[in-house]
Amino acid sequence: MDTHLIKTVNKLQDAFSTVGLQNPISDLPQIVVIGSQSSGKSSVLENIVGRDFLPRGTGIVTRRPLVLQLINRPATPKTNGTIKNENQDDIANDLTGGDNIDEWGEFLHLPGQKFYKFGEIREEIIRDTEAKTGKNLGLSPQPINLRIFSPNVLTLTMVDLPGMTKVPVGDQPKDIEKQIREMLLQYITKPNAIILSVTAATQDLANSDGLKLARQVDPEGSRTIGVLTKVDLMDQGTDVIDILAGRVVPLRLGYVPVVNRGQRDIESNKTITKALTAEKDFFERHSAYHSKAQYCGTPFLARKLNMILMHHIRNTLPEIKAKIQNALVKYQQELTQLGDPLGDSPANQANLVLNIITEFCNEFRTIIDGNSNDLSSFELSGGARISFVFHELYANGVKSVDPLEQIKDVSIRMMLYNSSGSSPALFVATTAFEVMVKQQIKRLEEPSIKCINMVYDELVRILGQLLSKQFFKRFPTLKDKFYHIVLAFFKKALNPTNKLVSDLVSMEASYINTGHPDFLNGHQAIAIVNEQLKNKNQPPAATTTPAITNGKQKPRSSPQQPDLQTSQPHTPTEDENGFFGSFFSSAKKTNTSSGMMDAPPQSLKAGGTLTDREFMEIEVIKMLIVSYYNIVKRTVIDMVPKAIMLNLVSHAKEKLQRELLTELYKSDVLDDLLEESEFSQQRRKECKKMVEALQKADEIVGSV
Ligand SMILES: Nc1nc2c(ncn2[C@@H]2O[C@H](COP(=O)(O)OP(=O)(O)OP(=O)(O)O)[C@@H](O)[C@H]2O)c(=O)[nH]1
Description:
- The chain is α/β, with parallel strands linked by helices.
- It has 2 domains: 31-75 and 94-296, Rossmann fold; 348-534 and 609-685, Dynamin, middle domain (Four Helix Bundle (Hemerythrin (Met), subunit A)), CATH 1.20.120.
- 53% of the residues lie in helices and 8% in strands.
- The chain has helices spanning 3-18, 41-49, 94-97, 118-133, 176-188, 209-217, 241-244, 263-267, 272-285, 298-338, 346-369, 383-399, 409-419, 430-442, 445-467, 470-474, 476-510, 522-536, 581-594, 612-664, 667-673, 678-703; strands at 30-35, 66-72, 104-107, 144-150, 156-160, 193-200, 224-229, 255-257, 546-549, 552-555.
- The strands form 2 sheets. Strands 3-4-2-5-1-6-7-8 form an 8-stranded mixed sheet, sandwiched between helices.
- Helix 15 packs parallel to helix 20.
- It is elongated and about 155 Å long.
- The two termini are 18 Å apart.
- The structure holds guanosine-5'-triphosphate.
- The site of guanosine-5'-triphosphate (GTP) has 25 residues, from helix 2 and helix 8.
């Protein structure tokens, strides 16, 4: 093989292996040898490879495909430090099978076994062929896979195939011709196969089986080279000049006449080197060829192949160049992101910390305000999540609190008794209403505090997002510090926020503004309830009369109170007219029966059937509670988010930067803060190495 081609490919392969990229030219065309039996295919292949390792001879010799992978590997440096010359052992290794530690063969079916003697490779091919096909000329499509490692070969694949034959002999099946054709087609149909169609010059070219088959898969002849063997065996006075001139069966890539070793040469162990010299002499001395001797013989065939391979490589170069360029851009970008290694200059360090703090805070504000560059279209982020907490979670949480859920009619009744003190009340007790509504307002503190915690969680989430930035990967200590400082800052802001929010709720509870324009006044409430009472006392219409709860209407009957719908309408007695009517009436009954006045029991409870007045009082109170509660709900839904924004979110937006600067922008901590992570240091080295290697690779590709 052309050493220039080998060197070029090696350079490209080196360029790629140093940068760890998949080598795009590893896929060089396969060279496939086809032709009639004994036309000299194996001989041609051997001459091209320059090694004597294939079984050759008369009759059918190649009976299984031989897939020969040539693998280029660098020569082992000599102990004296000089690199071995590529060709220095060329002759020594010939036929004799002399050992060369840099060249060996390996069979797929004998993994791990290295064959340094090429004669032994041939023996193994014969042994394994017979093992699979028997000794009696049988054929098999099962390939023998052989890899040859050498500094002197191109990494490419060559395939030696059984010769085409028509008449079965020995153990061969009747359709041997068809079977072989199919076997060959499998290999030559691949578009990257270069077909070496071998025909003995002693044979009629028009009947060449190899050419006919090649034309089937390559009608243009763009990848078929005609090889004419046994030119030395032609009758005196005949030659292949007409064929070479394209006057017989023209081929775009032309024909190359060669002279391989004859059977006698093989038997006398003539070396390839000697055979090549003899071939050269033959063409130079032959009267028909001597003027065109440079276009004849194995070296010219090898050059032709090299040219085709070079052409292929040139075609692949733009792709290689693009791959190198892309990788270069990628690594250069990463290198820029990693930044330069920091010098010890305190001014540099301080500047960097300042920049990181500024960038962090800007980004933090941007995320909260929703102006971030990487806005997601899949999920809510940053400020939008906080807004969701306020307007969905918190607002709905507050709206769902039912003030009457915890207020039973009996407790209202009890409260009414108690709030009127020792004198019977004249009308709806304001005190009872206020006491009850205040208790209910206090219940709004819990969802409000929960809302603060949810917003806090969102801030921590944003913090996590920001800490995943590249520069924090580079400085783990700085990242850690940021985390703790910012978290502590948020936590500190929680206290005034909690205080402000609970104060807001307390404010609501501290003064019940019955003069609020939206508040349902007592008269309206009484009118509504009176209407209900009227309906109640007119059965059966009363059965549909609802009581008002939390602004909604629901059936009034409940287990805690007598079912007013079923109790008979009654005229209130004198006793029952007071708030304590029921109680006194029952107490009186007790006293009358015992005939004496006992001390009141330890625990006194209001009981007995509700009077209409009590019913009215209870319903009015409930209605007022619901009305007032709705006003308070609206206020907290409006105010609590404002309080959280003021003391937590906006506070962070405004004051976080100062906090970070106070804590981090100090000369005595800079050294520790900016200690780079192992990862960054390592990665920078890797990237630098890659950039250098890629630049070199780019140069190499440019020079090919
Ligand atoms: N004199 C002479 N003999 C040749 C030439 N080429 C091949 N031979 C002889 O022809 C015979 C067949 O050569 P091989 O290389 O085994 O041919 P093949 O095409 O591989 O044979 P099969 O694999 O059996 O089809 C051998 O005895 C070779 O020595 C040549 O150019 N000149």
